[in-house]
Amino acid sequence: MTYQPPPPPPSGPPPYGQPPYGAPQGGYPAQQPDSNLVWGILCALLCCLPLGVVSIVYASKVSGLWVQGRYAEAQTAADNAKKWAIWGAVAGVIVLIIYGVLAVAGGLSGYMSVS
Amino acid sequence: MHVHPLAAPLAVAAAAAGGCAVIWAANPTVPGGILPVCPTKALLGIDCPGCGSLRMIYSLLHFDFASAVHYNALGLVAVLLLLWAFAAWTYGRVVGRQVRSWQHLRWSAPTVLALTVVWFVVRNLGFGPFPALHV
């Protein structure tokens, strides 16, 4: 006689990690994480680097994952959107510094070749 | 330590004003200025979705809306949306609760992504009316 393993417990609604924000909205726990979309747009607009687009890609996944009930993945996507926006800003600053150094060096060499 | 709720919005506004002052003084619409050309354009020779943004902002600061649309039309829309988000965020800080804005809507981020990708493609096409979008 073989014992069947017990069936897995019924998958109920995910546990409430945080108290609901205001009135319960369709049974969602807490509130959808901020997708950090604004930072991705700022990065794509001003840093001129594809990293801002990467951030927007992650931000665009947040609400879709959230309505599917994949709350942890939605949070991860939101965190990734923030991370890539920060990296884009860092890369933009680095490019600005390199440009400044090259401009100063070019200006100096031009000045010296003239004089 | 208690931080005034308006400290963060004021810091963002100050940073934006400083950036606008630099753009105004440097005039990126004249080539060879102190402001760098977009690295994507400098290295690859293509227009990224953000290319022309500095010139667009410079034109906006001078109320030259036609030039602003020419330099980066989608960027101009993005600036208006960012101003909206900033206003909602600041208002939320004043009243002490989170105010929902356009970026919290269900399809905002996917729409932004689609528009950005389409904009990236069409402003680099070399036929029909598209070269007019090249900056």
Topology:
The complex is a heterodimer of chains A (115) and B (135).
Chain A: H1 37-47, H2 50-67, H3 71-114
Helix pairs in contact in A: 1-2, 1-3, 2-3
Chain B: H1 7-26, H2 39-44, H3 53-61, H4 65-95, H5 108-122
Helix pairs in contact in B: 3-4
Overall body shape of chain A:
rod-shaped
Strand content of chain B: under 5%
Give the structural class of chain A. Answer: mainly alpha
Q: Which whole number gives the mean pLDDT of chain B?
A: 90
Low-confidence stretches of chain A: 9-26
Write down the overall mean pLDDT of chain A. 75
Number of strands of chain A: 0
Rg over alpha carbons of chain B: 17 Å
Structure explained in plain terms:
The complex is a heterodimer of chains A (115) and B (135). Chain A is an all-alpha fold. Chain A has helices spanning 37-47, 50-67, 71-114. Chain A is rod-shaped, with a radius of gyration of 24 Å. At the A-B interface, helix 1, helix 2 and helix 3 of A face helix 2, helix 4 and helix 5 of B.
Summarize the structure.
The complex is a heterodimer of chains A (115) and B (135). Chain A has 115 residues and is mainly alpha-helical.
Keywords:
heterodimer, A: 115 residues, mainly alpha, 3 helices, 63% helix, 0% strand, B: 135 residues, 5 helices, 60% helix, globular
